[in-house]
Amino acid sequence: MNADIEIQGLNVSFVNRCCVTPVVTDVNILFPEGSITGLIGESGSGKSVLGMSILRLLPATARVEGRCMYKGRDLFSLPEAEMQKVLGKEIALIPQNPTESLNPVRTIGRQLTECVTIHEKRRKADAQKRRDQLLRCLGFHRPEQVSNSYSFELSGGMNQRIVTALGLMNHPRWVIADEPTKGLDAVLRRQVYQVLKEIGGSEAGGMMVITHDILLAEALCDRLLVLYKGCVMEQGKGETILRHPAHPYTRGLLESLPENGMHPIPRADEKKTDSGCRFYPRCPHGSKACGQMLPPETVLEDGRIVRCFLYA
Amino acid sequence: MTVLMQYMLKKTALLLPVLVGISIAAFALGAMSPGDPVDQVLNPNGNESYTREEYDRMAARMGLDKPAAVQYGKWLAGMFRGDMGRSFFTNKSVKGQLARRIPISARLAALSMAFTAVLGVGAGVVAAVYKDRFPDHILGALSMTALSVPGFWTAILFIWLFAEKWKLLPTSGIASWTGYLLPALTLALPGAGVCARLTRSAILDELGRQYVTVAGSKGFSRFQTVVRHVSCNALIPVVTYLGTHLAGILGGASVVETIFAVPGIGSYAIAAVQSKDYYVVQAYVLFSGTVYVAANIAVDLFYIAVNPRIRRGEAGR
Fold first, then answer.
1. ipTM computed for the complex
2. How far is B123 from chain A (nearest CA, A)?
3. Which of A97, A134, B78, B137 is deepest in the core (most CB within 10 A)?
4. To probe the interface with B, which of A101, A103, A114 has the most B CB atoms within 10 Å?
């Protein structure tokens, strides 16, 4: 069966007693089966919230609207018991903040194998084999020793690779990797990248990679999503977007990279509001319409989808 | 295992001076408290007279004519031999009395502990699961009441309700096992209140951690997450509290034992304090102090069992 993930009309906001804070607005994306999509954007742009909303793991204060179609079913309206069968098995997570993502009183080995045994109790031996294989791939030469350790006995970089293994344990169809290379040096980054690339290539896995690391995104991803303040500004083939960015924000983001001369995006103009286009207060090309309504998503000739009045 | 042994040895070694301190405090408490036991023995009703010689003879017989340090040494030596002395008044061996009374207090403490743990942890878990909803509010109010109402008041309320009104349970004494129920419950309520609040906040703390979300991403249900991931982490503060609480009620349910006429060590100690029965008070203080220390070791052992941070290496530091 077709294993695309298709998000339609996703809106996420956090609700507390005083106010409603929108964090993701009107997101429509198709993640084709087997593809690797990079989610890029600055901190607070809603990348992680978008990822976690697919897994339905947002805190109880989050209000999620829209649909997320997977194998003919809407994940957002699935009963909890059904969703648990999807989690970890069909769609798995490589969480961010690795050290906090691991339980300090359970051994690493148990936390890895339980990804498999929670779904099928009898596959314990399989799980152990898979665990050792993954740990070796990720640069641990003595998997048994690491398995017997606790998260506080390992370094941040080691834990980062442990959570990478965690997401891949049960051969999921989809992996959502939240900053998988954060805190790793160049050598280890390469190793993790290699593993993700192999998984993406060989095990028919689709992947969403949430990252600040645009070089990683370029090397690893087929497709890119550029987020700004909860809106997808531009989506399409990675190469096209990075070579010829269409949206003014994407252009600004790329120009601000050190290798491109580090030209920062100008500060927000306080007289302009972001109730229309989210980027309007900082945009050098802003027109009157930008301040009034959210630009529609426009499909360009090369297949890209851009949310900007320049192309509408 | 060597790290573990080292850790235990270190803990035990640190506790030795504590025990010595308790023994000195226990002895000093008797020796320094106002009132004269010799006078109490010779003149228990306050209207009998005695001569100077009679007084000196009695003081010598009670061993109270020697300097305090010598008295302490003799007393401590006796403790090591298992001789705790005799009551000044009844002339019964303190050891024999304790041997008869400790099991009664222990039974009461165990039952009360069971109530505390079941009510406290149970209420805490329910309150955490229904956070900010009706059951949470009700349990919050109940636990606050339980921990703030004094034991003697609860005792009177229970006696009135269960014994006078409904005639379900005996008012006092331990003729049958039902006699333990009311005192145990009275003793358990404040602890259960504290325990419920601790459990609730510990579980909520842990539920907010990221490893809980990650467990969810593996396909754990809420319940499985709580059982396999949260419980061990959340239990640590709760068990610490329960350990010291157990020590507290084992060594000193004096008020409740007195109200319900339970012949345990608590009521024994109260009677002894009233009549300045030194040896009994000293033995009692030493016993309850030792129980407290032992409970602390037990809590430490539990820590080691559930907390790998101590089991591994950090204990050595």
1. 0.89
2. 22
3. A134
4. A103
